[in-house]
Specification:
Aspartate Aminotransferase, domain 1, 2 domains, globular, 399 residues, binds pyridoxal-5'-phosphate, 7-stranded mixed sheet, 5-stranded mixed sheet, alpha/beta, Aspartate Aminotransferase, domain 2
Length: 399
């Protein structure tokens, strides 16, 4: 089956098959794990041609590996992009991409709320090397337009935003950036949705990055990442950002686990979304809860934008309790079934406190400026029976 034919198959089918043909692999239904660092050449000319990029084929596993290539083909297919690069972590994908795209004097325009380590890379990494980082509230497209300059190289955001669940309109932001200058790269962190729920490349974005640690792997047993986009840019990221700048190479063992995880991605996302909706509705009606941030609630300010660009509302939410930070700590310490842990997208329901955990690299003053409140609690709805999750949350909210 050619990859073109596979494009026409439905998402769930492509998630099982795209990029792999057992007929080319001894009939093995699951892909071989190529544990190799290097590849033997037939002769000197072939080695030279591979290094020069004149002949297709692998030459060293810091650049590419056959098992990794299967995952990259599958991810490109699911995100509807030309090519993908799998990396050792989400931060590996984000940093390899940005090191490749920007130089001193350039500006990167980013949404005001970012995953903690992404914020740290922008603020303490790129800035140190002379890149101007400009923050704007991307939920207001006029703020994006107002901050574009002739130095802007990349426009970067997450949606829904980790951890405060704001939703950014991908087609609106992409089209206004492209109208200003088609060479600016629009880069979207699609970790919260996965391509099962949202495909930014079909809405005008140029590049999608993932923490595959989360829903793509789906079982909390690995760290990995990916970037998807046009073939030329992905090749530049592979041959510079990955090969020379970060060396953030994914292990073929990890690739195998992600390929296994992706086979059930759509099934899992359906349950994550259903459970999150029921949990959010319970919390929204609960007397101890001040606010619930979940785009699936009809009263959520981002409900309409989310409904337009997401196939379902996702498995992530955040809340604030009436008793503020202290009430949040009491609740987290009383959980029995849900785990007090960072990360997200696992089978287990995971709950954490962003200000002291995932977003602790922001100072408290920065958290105020960037829209992360001190009492916010983040929930990743797991795959357990929803009545058991709800019962655990209810007992933790009492008192
Ligand atoms: C976890 C996460 C990252 C970083 O990914 P790692 O795999 O932990 O390096 C980036 N963006 C978002 C939205 C995340 O949740």
């Amino acid at each position: 089956m050619s990859s073109d034919n596979k494009k026409k198959l439905s998402f769930a089918t492509r998630a099982v098959h795209a990029g792999y043909d057992s007929a080319n692999n001894e009939g093995s239904l699951n892909p071989p794990i190529y544990m190799t660092s290097t590849y033997a050449f037939d002769n000197v000319a072939q080695g030279a041609a591979r290094f020069a990029g004149e002949e297709k084929g692998h030459f060293y596993s810091r650049i590419s590996n056959p098992t990794q290539e299967i995952l990259e083909t599958r991810l490109a297919n699911l995100e509807e992009g030309e090519a993908a690069l799998a990396t050792a972590s989400g931060m590996g994908a984000i940093t390899a991409t940005l090191w490749t795209l920007v130089a001193p004097g350039d500006q990167v325009l980013v949404d005001k709320t970012l995953y903690g380590c992404t914020f740290s890379f922008m603020e303490h990494g790129l800035k140190k090397f002379g890149v101007d980082i400009c923050y704007a509230d991307f939920t207001d497209p006029t703020e994006v337009a107002r901050n574009l300059t002739d130095k802007t190289k990349v426009v970067y955001f997450e949606t829904p935003v980790n951890p405060n669940m704001r939703v950014i309109d991908i087609p609106v932001v992409s089209s206004l950036v492209k109208a200003y200058n088609p060479d600016i790269k629009v880069m979207v962190d699609n970790t919260y949705c996965t391509p099962a729920l949202q495909r930014p490349l079909t809405m005008g974005a140029d590049l999608v990055v993932h923490s595959a640690t989360k829903y793509l792997g789906g079982h909390g047993d690995l760290i990995a990442g990916a970037v998807v986009g046009d073939a030329e840019t992905i090749q530049q990221i592979r041959l510079f950002g990955l090969k020379d700048m970060t060396g953030a190479v994914i292990s073929p063992m990890t690739v195998f686990l992600i390929l296994r995880g992706i086979k059930t991605l759509q099934l899992r996302m359906e349950r994550h979304c259903q459970n999150a909706q029921a949990i959010a509705e319970m919390l929204d009606a609960h007397p101890a809860v001040d606010k619930v941030f979940f785009p699936g609630l009809k009263n959520d300010p981002w409900h309409a934008v989310a409904a337009k660009q997401m196939d379902a509302f996702g498995g992530m939410m955040a809340l604030e309790l009436k008793g503020g930070y202290e009430a949040g700590v009491r609740m987290l310490n009383k959980l029995k079934l849900a785990k007090l842990a960072v990360s997200l997208g696992d089978a287990e329901t995971l709950i954490e406190h962003p200000a002291s955990m995932t977003h602790g690299v922001y100072t408290s003053e920065e958290r105020g400026e960037h829209g992360i409140s001190e009492g916010l609690v983040r929930i990743s709805a797991g795959l357990e029976a929803v009545e058991d999750i709800i019962a655990d949350l209810e007992q933790a909210l009492v008192g």
